[in-house]
Specification:
With about 575 residues, the protein is mostly helical. Among the domains are: about 5-145, no CATH class; about 190-225 and about 235-325, no CATH class; about 460-505, Helicase, Ruva Protein, domain 3; about 530-565. It is about 60% helix and about 5% strand. It has helices spanning about 5-20, 45-55, 55-85, 115-125, 145-150, 160-170, 190-200, 205-220, 250-270, 275-290, 295-300, 300-315, 320-340, 345-350, 360-375, 380-395, 400-405, 410-420, 425-460, 470-480, 485-495, 500-505, 530-535, 545-550, 555-565; strands at about 85-95, 105-110, 135, 140, 185-190. A five-stranded mixed β-sheet has the order 2-1-5-3-4, sandwiched between helices. A hairpin with an 8-residue loop joins β1 and β2 (about 105-110). The longest helix is centred in the C-terminal third of the chain and has 35 residues, at about 425-460. The chain is elongated. Pfam families: SASH1_Homeodomain, UBA. It comes from Pocillopora damicornis (Cauliflower coral). One of its GO terms (biological process) is regulation of ubiquitin-dependent protein catabolic process. This is UBA domain-containing protein.
Length: about 575
């Protein structure tokens, strides 16, 4: 992120504060006589500041002149913008910058132009390929929409109704994307190899295509309702304890999309492809913005996303995004402290350790140190680095202990996490890993059972009121010996009221209109064969219970045996009172 001497930056900040406190305006006389001439500074003012700040007179003079030039330049741009509407945009190039290209420019432009128009202006100014450029301002990607992107315009009467929507879609001017006079833009320059790839793909930018494809895949995954038909693709949103979070459909989709884009961005980040990673991470942040604050506090992903974005800024050396980086680090710290506690005490309670997340805090403190360094805050820099170093020491792993864990059959990842979580205690680490394995196994088992239940729910269908048939009530009726078809139809007609369903099965089974089944009222003991009764009696059940079970199951021997086995030979009454406890 470095571009200037941090020590001199601190002098600038201190002098700026003094000038404001003393209401000194360097852009006015006697300090500025002409915009084309150096400023005039009284000797006593320079000596006063030199003594107060303990800096040389030469440095004080240089700082005053820089502040004056900035103020005069800003005033000129504001006057120009007020008269002609021509804004000054400060540009910082980062990424694959060719030699001989100035990485800092000021571009004069109207704010009505699109991002595409602005990229053309940059191409004219620098000779760089506009298709390699990606514009980012204050953490947001600058879009450009052309008519061809929207497809053919609608015709006929419906066109007038949709005209305002189309106008909105096409209104991708710089002004509509919150750019103002004196705004700063970071321009990501894609690598040469990416540009060569784009020529093979009909002139489309590879990084943009990757982001677009990733977004489409993430949207497809987030739109899957319950992943019932194919267990190979499963996306579930859980809190920090691994429990599924129930969300409204629109928020579930937004959060699922954000998490998927974030995960893809992190995988690209590991490959050190910082420009493309930043694009994906900013897309994820856009989706997170569609979720309520209460939802974001339930998961730590948003804080990690902010950290990853600033990490990209750091490697792209984007000093112009320093204010945005500080804002994101503040959000990240608030999120971590809310999720883990100021001293990771909440994390210890929730997950049983604080080892895995220490690395996140190390990165956080390092990035806070970088921001403090570029503000000239040497004390703050040292403080943050001390915190990072202290936490990093806790992440150190003894190689002998690691090898010992590996010889026991644990994976390297498990061994490292276990040793870090247990501060190097091998015995505790073994217990920790074993516990985590069991928790993971139980969680997966529960997930599988829940998905099976959902699939059965969809298979059974809906009641007359549009609700899915209650699976627990269905299983209860089947265990009592009723056929799957009869239990399903009874619950559908009774709208999941198990008392009414039982009454229908007992008193009016013929009204259920089950093809191929005789009604309970028309089935009597005389319809039972001696062979049927003998088969049930051979299992050791009493005669009366065996006959009653066969009549309830309409002569189905296997269902009768299952019914008696499930009730240990004592058939429950079919009265309403007998099933009150099953309705909740």
């Amino acid at each position: 992120m470095a571009e200037q001497n941090p020590h001199f930056n601190r002098i600038l900040d201190q002098i700026r504060d003094k000038l404001r406190a003393e209401n000194i305006k360097l852009w006015l006389p006697p300090y500025t006589v002409s915009n084309d001439l150096p400023g005039i500074y009284p000797e006593e003012l320079i000596n006063q500041y030199s003594e107060a700040l303990n800096e040389s007179a030469e440095e004080i003079f240089e700082a005053l002149e820089q502040l004056r030039i900035r103020a005069v330049t800003k005033l000129q741009t504001e006057q120009r913008f007020a008269k002609s509407g021509i804004a000054t945009i400060k540009v910082h190039f980062t990424g694959s910058i060719p030699q001989g290209i100035n990485n800092r420019l000021q571009i004069q432009t109207g704010l009505h132009v699109t991002g595409e128009d602005f990229r053309r202006s940059l191409k004219k100014e620098t000779g760089l390929d506009a298709e390699k450029m990606k514009l980012i301002c204050k953490g947001h990607v600058i879009c450009d929409v052309v008519v061809s992107d929207l497809g053919p315009l609608p015709k006929g009467p419906s066109f007038s109704a949709s005209a305002s929507i189309i106008d909105f879609l096409m209104d991708k001017s710089l002004e509509s994307q919150n750019l103002k006079n004196n705004s700063q833009i970071m321009v990501l320059l894609l690598s040469k190899s990416s540009a060569e790839m784009e020529n093979q793909w009909q002139g489309k930018d590879e990084a943009r295509e990757n982001v677009s494809r990733t977004r489409q895949a993430a949207e497809a995954l987030s739109n899957r309702q319950d992943n019932l038909k194919d267990d190979r693709f499963f996306l579930e949103i859980s809190d920090q304890e691994g429990r599924p979070i129930q969300l409204p459909e629109n928020e579930r989709k937004a959060l699922a999309l954000a998490l998927t884009l974030h995960e893809k961005g992190r995988s690209v980040l590991k490959k050190r492809n910082y420009p493309e990673a930043l694009l994906l991470l900013l897309e994820a942040e856009k989706e997170f913005s569609h979720c309520r604050a209460q939802i974001l506090t339930a998961v730590d992903n948003y804080g990690i996303l902010c950290l990853d974005i600033v990490w990209c800024y750091f490697w792209l050396k984007s000093i112009v995004d320093l204010p945005n980086a500080e804002e994101k680090l503040k959000k990240c710290k608030e999120c971590f402290e809310r999720s883990y506690g100021q001293n990771l005490e909440r994390l210890t309670v929730v997950r049983g350790s604080s080892g895995g997340e220490l690395a996140l805090f190390v990165r956080l403190y390092v990035l806070e140190a970088v921001c403090a360094y570029h503000k000239g805050d040497i004390f703050g820099t040292a403080k943050c680095l001390d915190k990072a170093e202290d936490l990093q020491s806790k992440l150190h792993i003894n190689k002998d202990q690691l090898n010992q864990m590996l010889m026991m059959g644990f994976t390297e990842s498990e061994a490292r996490l276990g040793l870090r979580a247990c501060q190097g205690d091998t015995t505790l680490a073994i217990d920790y890993i074993t516990t985590k394995r069991q928790e993971k196994k139980e969680r997966r088992k529960k997930e599988v059972e829940e998905r099976k239940k959902k699939r059965l729910e969809r298979k059974l269908g809906k009641t007359g009121t549009g609700e899915w048939v209650n699976v627990d009530s269905y299983k209860f009726l089947v265990e009592m010996g009723f056929s799957s078809c009869m239990a399903t139809q009874a619950l559908k007609q009774a709208n999941n009221d198990i008392n009414n369903a039982l009454q229908a099965l007992q008193d009016n089974p013929d009204l259920l209109d089950i093809p191929g089944k005789r009604s309970r009222s028309s089935f009597s003991e005389s319809d039972l064969s001696d062979e049927q009764v003998a088969q049930v009696l051979s299992m050791g059940f009493p005669v009366e219970s065996s006959k009653e079970a066969l009549m309830r199951c309409l002569g189905d021997v296997q269902q009768a045996i299952n019914m008696l086995l499930s009730t240990e030979g004592v058939l429950p009454s079919l009265s309403l009172q007998a099933v009150q406890g099953t309705t909740h």
